[in-house]
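lol so apparently i was supposed to do this last week
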Amino acid sequence: MGETYEITDLMIKDHKEIIDCLNRIKHSTGEGSNLVSELFDKLKWVLEKHIFVEEKAIFTFFNPKIKEDYREIPCILEEHNLILDMLSKLDKQLTDTGNIDISEFKRVLEKHKNFEENSLYPKLDRNLDKSQKDIIIKRIREITCKE
Ligand SMILES: [Fe+2]
Ligand SMILES: [Fe+2]
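anyway here it is w/ fe (ii) ion bound
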């Protein structure tokens, strides 16, 4: 039986939605702060939902017994805090000035997502047993509604 990468595939789809939001914000600068606010609101929704899924549905498999195999998880969690912090600073900046520069935010997010897509998620797809994966996939779908 060939290997399947269901968790990876679902999370790649969710990452695409986040990057799509970022690109729309980038291309809407100069088109009025109402549009940017609307797009930023959507970005906040998809990104906070995404991080919730990762931390509450996926990383729950993580326990002290297997800590050695997943040394990257604490670092990923730290990056989530950094990302959420940057998001709330951008939110404030947008409210105060009507304008935002998302280039640094995009750089941080892309690095983070590439690591998850190329390393962490394929490893989970290979190593978790079927019952663990089934629960995780069901929960991802409950929140993201991905096919
Ligand atoms: Fe993440
Ligand atoms: Fe992610």
